[in-house]
Amino acid sequence: MGIRNAGTVIKEARLRAGLTQDQMSEGICSLVSLCNIETGKKGVSPSTFHALMKKAGASGEVYPLFKDNKDFDAYMLLKNVRLYADKYCFNLAYKELMKLKLCSYGENRLYYQESLLLLARVKYLAGDTNYEKLLDILYTSLHISLPNFNLTDINQAFFSTIDYEILTLIANICIDAQKKDTAWDICLSLVNCINKNIVDDKYTAYVRILCLFTYSRLSFIAKDYDKVRENLTLAMHLSAEYYIETYRLEIILLKLLNEYCLDNSLICNDLVYLLSLASHLKCGYVSKLKNLAIELGISQKCINVPDPEISVFTDFPFLISETDLSDGSFDLYDRNTLTIGALIGKFRKEQRLSLNELCEGLCSVSKLSKIETDTQYPGIFLSESLLNRLGYSERDFIFYGNISESEYYRQKSYLLSKYRHGETDSADYKKKLEAGLKSDNVAIRQLCMLLKNSTNRSSTKEYDALIEAIKLSIPNFNLSDFTGKRFSWTEISILNGLCAKMIKLGKKDDAQKTNNMLISYSQNYFITPGFKSISLFPSYRLHFRYLYNSRLYTQIIDELDSFDDELLLKSPETASDFFFYSAQANGELKNFGKMAEQAKIAAGFFILIGQNKRKNYLISEIKKQFGISI
């Protein structure tokens, strides 16, 4: 069964960890609620499920079950805040946080806790230096799950991922507030706690990265540069392995400064590129980093970057009373409860889709009808595709499935990570790809066909293979007109791959037509920010590539200047190409000042996403074509 009973999963995890129900529920929900959850009498919200699983040291995938529409809406707002915060879209994140307050955080105390954490994080990264106020927000957030907690209890306490996030952010703010002893105490204790963790998953990796970065900041101040190198190397490895973006820019910046302190081998231009990127993202720490670089004796030309405009947020009362907030448990059989099937049905009806339109090529109408009425559970693969077609990212619903389905997610993450970093020549990658191509599961086979045939070659054979791949799930697909169709992430990625092949094969008009349809699809009201960012932003990249190959330089510059989508302009994989093509377009039009400015930002993005070859290509091409060193 694709989506297991949450109560059974929680009970199994608790027993494996040797915890009593009293120990397990402390700080998360009442003992009675946990008893009812484990026996299946009550449902459990995703945040509460995750908190309980992490306390048991178990894999904390989210169980997709919601109390009602208000609970689901608050959950999705939180997902949006996370997305925006990770992409440095501070204003968008702040607006979503205000919406959360207006809906009383879904009347869920753990949603409230996470919202306060993200509020403090957004303000901190945006440059708020009122450290005492930020610490007050974080301590208020921490005391929601650990009401009697004080810093001397760290080694004895059980922590959720949110608790770890709060504590590492407190430590980082303490560093800036000159409370280094407190920061050290928190950091060392958290490292000990994490080392006891018995599960190895993305959430644990994320927490490790936060602690390694914080530990590295403190070690850098103590001039223990070897320890900094060791910790940051591990943090970068985890970031790449699990594809975790959070704090990657800050980690790379600290790594550069540390290498300079070790042997003065700082690559000057990389520091300029990354600081230019941080300025573009409006990170509030740019000025402090520049001052630190000067103190270290780094040349002024390496930090010749304008300070960003600091984000200013409207005063808003985010704090509320906790007394009316639930612990995330609820009546499992209430008519308002939303299972994954009920959610799919809700979205489909809101979007006025027929059963046949949604399930085409995925399952029978009869099966989808049973899923929506909870008489049949969908497998993870099917749930993922259905949600995608409804405009939602599967990353917002990380299902707790059976062993084979969990293995699918592991393999998918591995293949995508290697592909994104251009590491596709290893024997292990090729072995997993070939195994996937022979899989009986259509989702796995389709993904592997996409990856195998998405090379940079001009190949009719690969073009035909991509057509064959999309027909696995949409048998009657017609590339010339797919108006009215719904697509999963894999299907959209195949269409983008076909566009790229058309450009390579000289079919520019066909490429433009397909690309325009994809961009139009991305603007539909039902497409959520999370799904748009991972699936449809590449269509905008291809649009710029088409314009550049057609030598429409002025149009490139005008379109980039007209963008008002903060997420689009700050998402690394997409924005890197915007500035890559716009920099060269400005060069062609002899706007050399603007060219240099945008080339630095593009180079910074390329470093961030591990595409150093493209960074080097851009810099060398500008030097070769225009005689200008960036």
Structure notes:
It is a single chain. The chain is mainly α and 630 residues long. It has 31 helices and 2 strands. The chain has a two-stranded antiparallel sheet with strand order 1-2. Helix 9 runs antiparallel to helix 10 and helix 30 (592-608) packs antiparallel against helix 31. 49% of the residues are buried.
Give the helices and strands, then pairings.
Blueprint: H1 6-17, H2 21-25, H3 31-38, E1 42-44, H4 46-55, H5 69-86, H6 90-102, H7 109-125, H8 131-145, H9 161-176, H10 180-195, H11 202-221, H12 225-242, H13 248-263, H14 268-280, H15 286-295, E2 329-331, H16 340-350, H17 355-359, H18 365-372, H19 380-389, H20 403-420, H21 427-437, H22 442-452, H23 460-470, H24 489-504, H25 508-522, H26 529-549, H27 553-562, H28 566-570, H29 572-588, H30 592-608, H31 612-626
Antiparallel strand pairs: 1-2
